[in-house]
Amino acid sequence: MIFPWLASTWRQLHQSLETRRPQAVLLSGVNGVGQRELAAHVGGWLLCDHPSPQGACGQCVGCTWVAAGTHPDYWVIEPEEGSRTIKVDTIRSRLADAPQTTHRSGLRVIVMGPMEALNVAASNALLKTLEEPTESTLFVLWTAAFARLLPTIISRCQRVRCAVTDESAALAWLVSEVPQLSALEARVLLCLADGGPLAAQEWYAAKGLALRGECMRQLRDLLVSRSWLDSQVCEEWVASHKGGRWLLVWISVLVDIERAYCGVPAAYWTHRDCEPQLRQIVGAWSVDRVRQALSRALEARRVLGVSSGINESLLWESLLNQL
Ligand SMILES: [Zn+2]
Predict the structure, then answer these.
(1) Which domain covers residue 294, as residue numbers?
(2) 83 CA distance to ligand 1 centroid (A)?
(3) Domain count of the fold of the chain
(4) What's the pLDDT tens digit per position in 50-79?
(5) Nearest to 27 by CA among 38, 43, 41
(6) What is the CATH number of the domain that holds 259?
(7) Are strands 74-77 and 24-28 parallel, antiparallel or unpaired?
(8) Which residues surround ligand 1, an ion (CB under 5 A)?
(9) Residue 189 pLDDT > 80, yes or no?
(10) Cα of 40 from ligand 1 centre, angstroms
């Protein structure tokens, strides 16, 4: 299945693959835009006995094996459950042992991602394979952090950008997946998720809207009536939005407050559904304080992006303490 906002991306990729088979394609885009699913779609199409411009037929032997996870020439390499990394040993053991010939005398397809899960050692191990291309193997790689990949890997791939080119299609999909959502909430979730519809769905499942509302209420209490934040809610907030997602919400709230100061209409805010709460915060805060808070939050995001093992709850608390 192709997500509606990626239909034209697939059409172009299909045409180019019909003309020329690169050694590797790299599907990149924001988290949850559907690059992983598109990678699987491409992989299935490549191994289908009766492929069409829409994709795999779903009926042939190749398709049946891919669907059952038993196709000997269809390899999926992802982080193991509970882990965020693809280990160098995994890359070495899978790729070094790859036989020259394939089981069905066709192509071997290796779908791998997210590429940012490879550390330098694992990336170098992959690079070694990419430097010795074989006609029988095609890599379909996917990433949500293109800027963090080794240039030497990027240069060996045909890059395909995955993006939501038609926001209304993404919103319609989101509302059809989560019928409880109003159109406004769907838009807020999509903004929070940086434009990735599948990530927006995850935000909803992780009670992102409810927690955001609670966070905003407490922030307003803190700024307007100087009451202190409930530390348990803070911890819960960080725990359910790990990996810095809580920080993205915080930054988006601050950006909205700054927008309000600059007279940007609420229709252009991320949290347009929280206009009354945000207006109250605006009244209690000077624009300089907002900008200082924003620059501290952006610095925290930078630190989170380049370091590991940071206690996110403590980071959040320190940001709040400096307000
Ligand atoms: Zn098929």
Answers:
(1) 206-321
(2) 32
(3) 2
(4) 999 999 999 999 999 999 999 999 999 999
(5) 38
(6) 1.20.272.10
(7) unpaired
(8) 48, 56-57, 60, 63
(9) yes
(10) 13
